[in-house]
Amino acid sequence: MKKINLNDGTEIYCLKETEAIVLDEHIKGYLSFGIDLKNGDTIIDVGANIGVLGLRLSKYFHNIHIHCFEPIPEIHAVLKRNAEISLNSNFKTYMMGLSNVNRTLNFTYYPNSPALSTAQPQIWKDDQDNFRSAVEGNIASMPLQLWWTKLIPKFMTPLIAKYLTANSKEVQSKVITLSDFIEKEKQKYRQILHH
Length: 195
Known about the structure:
Elements: E1 2-5, E2 11-14, H1 17-31, E3 42-46, H2 52-60, E4 65-69, H3 73-85, E5 91-94, E6 97-98, E7 103-109, H4 122-126, H5 128-140, H6 157-165, E8 169-176, H7 178-194
Parallel strand pairs: 3-4, 4-5, 6-8
Antiparallel strand pairs: 1-2, 7-8
Helix pairs in contact: 5-6
């Protein structure tokens, strides 16, 4: 885990610097589509990764509640650090995922590209051509800060794709339903109000 500065100087912890920069660009893109958020809102971030969304929203709003779910331990550790540096006491992290049932799931963690980590690794294996196309598309649309990636020749794409999924690790993590999570949160608030 290392600490870097994003384009605007915002500090963030990450596992891979280039991935953090790309995730930040993705989040800026999501937020530019007219999502209507305001102080006091509650956000559920499923597959929060390192918490770029939570960090950005904590910077834009002084009173926003963010619940970030990340089931991969290595990624969750970074998410937790970013929640701490956000200075938003309502930025909560959970080392688990959300699903349609409560259970334990197997996840595949890709240390070379943590954002690819998934409970369904077959999506990357079953359609190699599509995966290589996605890698090629990501290279072509990299932020200006990573201008040098545009110099990577297309014939390198299969090697890059192979590198991104190399050294994968299997991890087990808990997943719960959103309705169970909401019910548990309601119970916590009721207990606080009764004390």
